[in-house]
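[Automated response] Your request has been received and processed.

Submitted sequence:
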Amino acid sequence: VYRHSQDRTMSWLKKKVEGLAGGLRQTGLYVGAGSQSTTFVRSKKSQNSSEEDYLRYACGMVCDYVAVELAEQLRNQLGLSPVSVAKPNSTHNTFRTPAADNPGEPPMKKRLVECQEEPLEDYTKFNSSSSKQKKVAKLSAAQKLLAKVDKTGMKSLSSFFKK
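Generated structure:
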C-alpha cells in the first residue's frame, strides 16, 4: 500500500521543472512569446528570455503529463501567475461574427450571390488542341517483339478473371 504525500510530490515535480528549465537554457531554446524559426540566428544580446520564461515553458511541458489539480498546485508552488492571453477588441476584429457575441443564437446565413458571373475568357481552347495531337510513343525492343507475335487462339488476360 502506497501513501501519497503532497509535499514530496510537489518538491519532486518542482525539482524536475527546474532541471528542465536549466536544460532548456543550456540548449538555447527560444521560450519567449510568439514563435521563431529554428534556423533563425539570434544574437545573445537580443534574447530576452528570463528565468520566469524558462520556468513557465518547462512547467507547461511537465503539466501536460500530470493531472489538472497537480498542475495548478505546481504553478502555485513555483510562483507562476496564470498567463493572460490578450483577447482582441471587438471593434478592431474584422472577422468577428455576430454569433460570437451571442452564443445562444445560430450564425447568420451567407447572402447568396444573385448574379452568377461567367469568366471573360475561355482558357479551355488552349488545352483542347494539345489533347487532339497525341504523341506516338516509341516502342521498346520487347514491345516490338510482342507486337509481331501471332495472337490467334490466345485468350485475353481479362478472361482469366471471369467466372
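Summary generated for your ticket: The radius of gyration is 34 Å. The chain has seven helices and no strands.
If you did not submit this request, please reply to this message.
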